[in-house]
């Protein structure tokens, strides 16, 4: 209609105003149909650029690559017929120009001549996938760790106790001169008095968390604190990737944003700045904290008694050996000979006097069948550490 209006004698500008177009656009379509009947003009829009891409591989070169691949597949002594082998053969024959390995790969892919299957990328499991209630966001887990071997400007050595919630992301960082089990207990009580009690508390296998490794049936100070408050301690397997990502990520973040940015002369200065950073971090994640699973209130009349009878549950995440066994509380426990070198969750139920071992698979995190259940009774004996 624009072209018809111009051909009837209407000015280009008036046509442009009537159709809400620029004069250049009207001239473009008028010139497209110049000298021809309108019913024989193709008014379909055309992509920008040349009709033929300047750097497109010629059809003859593509045919040569495919023929050479077939030749190498049938007659090569090494049996190699991939992109690198084709590139090497073309270079040996002196055919110019020789396409790059990446170009040869694109040619093979375009013609469906690639035999190797691509690696299957599976979605990551949900946070806390190894604990069903945690993965379903019904409960919260606090993860704790230690940063060691740091030094102030004057040479004073110190460490940091760190904490992070899996779902709410409430973080904490406490610089300490001495990193002991008693220090960890004091910081756990401080955190839980403020935020409330989670359902789980996760640690690595450091003796300050788990207890002495040289004794069987040893339950450390931190575990006894958790059990007395109804919090289930969870111990991650050593040298296992992924299960400690939350706390390790915060450790790196705290060192990059606090420790490495400024120079501190005293531990008090560092503690003051770290506290401000923790408050700012929580403020930034306020919405996530608000939607986190609820916590239980900290009991007001509670007192820590390290000699109290052990009740509740301990969880050990472990990887089985070649015979399908794991080490829990100093005992070698049979899980399943068909589940060797695989992850398991061992739940030590102190009240029911049993250990249940469940299979864990990142590929199918919701399927956690019971592999074995054995009788276990922890001996009743007083706590051997200092009160």
Please sum up the structure shown.
This protein has helices at 2-7, 12-18, 23-32, 59-75, 83-93, 101-110, 132-135, 181-195, 207-210, 221-228, 245-259, 267-284, 286-290; strands at residues 141-151, 157-165, 171-176, 200-203, 232-235, 313-319, 325-328, 331-334, 343-349, 354-359, 370-375. It is α/β, with parallel strands linked by helices and 387 residues long. It has 3 domains: 2-40, no CATH class; 59-110; 128-387, Ribonuclease H-like superfamily/Ribonuclease H (Nucleotidyltransferase, domain 5, 2-Layer Sandwich), CATH 3.30.420.
Q: Roughly what is the average pLDDT, rounded to an integer?
A: 90
How do the SSEs run, as a string of H and E?
HHHHHHHEEEHEHHEHHHEEEEEE
Total strands:
11
Biggest sheet, spatial arrangement of strands: 3-2-1-4-5-6-9-10-11
Please provide a written account of the structure.
Strand 7 (325-328) and strand 8 form a beta hairpin. Helix 2 (12-18) packs across helix 3, helix 4 (59-75) crosses helix 5 and helix 5 packs across helix 6. A nine-stranded mixed sheet has the order 3-2-1-4-5-6-9-10-11. It has three domains: 2-40, no CATH class; 59-110; 128-387, Ribonuclease H-like superfamily/Ribonuclease H (Nucleotidyltransferase, domain 5). The N and C termini lie far apart (94 Å). The longest helix is centred in the last third of the chain and has 18 residues, at 267-284. It contains 13 helices and eleven strands. Helices cover 34% and strands 18% of the residues. The protein has 387 residues and is an alpha/beta fold.
